[in-house]
Amino acid sequence: MRFTPLAALVSVLAVATCTPVERGAVAPPSGPAFAHVQDLDGTPDMIVDAKTLATSWVVYDQELKESFCSIEEANLAPGKYRLLRFTVVTPNIGDADIYIGDPNRHWDPNGDGDGSDSDGLFENNACHRHYHFRNYALYQLIDSTGKITKARKNGFCMIDVKPYNEDAPPKSWVYRACGRPARPELGLPEVPGNQGISVGYADEYYKWLGGQYFVLNDPNAPLIPPGQYTLRIWVNPPFTAKKNEPCPAVDPQGFCHMFKESNYDNNIGEAVINIPDHPGKKGYGPGGGTDPVDEIVDDEDRPDK
Ligand SMILES: [Ca+2]
Ligand SMILES: [Ca+2]
């Protein structure tokens, strides 16, 4: 099935994803951040791991607490909501790394603490005080008639979370530092980042991260009734640049993408899901069976379980 990028984009709610609880200082990554060999010879190619999507989704009634940045971003009052949560894995199956580098220098190239010279690749998130790569992925929930009932764009820290090369022994990761803006009010300097996704590695957004959900009973939006739906994830999705918005790469159809790929036609992963009448305490769906977990910060310590 083919979907027109324009139709998909029209319905997008531009909700920046964020992550949850501010933990103050970022713990250092578990190894050196610049340890391994970069491969920039060729072109990256991102896909969405549909198998992970199909086995991770879960519907919960979950308390969204005041401390969660994602409720501020979604304009929700704290309280209990029915959520569809899911894990997104985006492997690079191309023949070169996606190389982003230090978000501090994308957001503030001349290092004067003012983002007016930003290249537009990142947002400096006000709630978490860290960077989000813009337009990294588009999440959509589609009903049985084909109507897009929910959509959001998510932005992330892009790093090598786990190997994806199933037929060869995994090589070393290369990119594992999200970076962080300075916090002058706390006397904290900026933390340099090194973002990218190397060949044979995947970035992963586990379902407990902030923003890894749709609210099915959002009081500010139409109720999503029980039934069968398609969950569609689109990595590096096409978009039409607005005024002053960057367009780093253009596909053969003329749509913008945030980074160049050798193939833009394999960027969608889908799973069929069922929204139940009553999800139960431990959730309904293949990703259920446990109590819901409070949101987790999207940084280099993000969990993969
Ligand atoms: Ca691709
Ligand atoms: Ca500047």
Topology of this structure?
Elements: H1 5-10, H2 50-56, E1 58-64, H3 69-73, E2 79-85, E3 88-91, E4 98-101, H4 103-107, E5 122-124, E6 131-142, E7 148-156, E8 162-163, E9 195-197, E10 201-205, E11 213-215, E12 227-235, E13 249-250, E14 256-257, E15 268-275
Antiparallel strand pairs: 1-2, 2-11, 3-10, 4-9, 5-6, 6-7, 6-12, 8-10, 12-15, 13-14
Bound molecules: calcium ion (CA) (2 copies).
Explain this structure to me?
By secondary structure, the chain is mostly beta strands. It has one domain (13-275). The protein contains 4 helices and 15 strands. It has helices at 5-10, 50-56, 69-73, 103-107; strands at residues 58-64, 79-85, 88-91, 98-101, 122-124, 131-142, 148-156, 162-163, 195-197, 201-205, 213-215, 227-235, 249-250, 256-257, 268-275. The strands form 5 sheets. Strands 5, 6, 7, 12 and 15 form a 5-stranded antiparallel beta sheet that branches. Mean pLDDT is 85; it is low at 1-33. The structure holds calcium ion (2 copies). One calcium ion binds next to loops.
What form results from the Cα inertia axes?
Answer: globular
Beta-strand content bin = 25-35%
Total beta strands: 15
Ligand set? calcium ion
The helical percent reads under 10%
For the largest beta-sheet, the strand count, sense and barrel status come to:
5 strands, antiparallel
The span between the termini is 32 Å
Radius of gyration: 19 Å
Report low-confidence residues grouped into runs of 5 or more: 1-33
What does the average pLDDT come to?
Answer: 85
Number of individual domains: 1
Give the SSE order as H and E letters: HHEHEEEHEEEEEEEEEEE
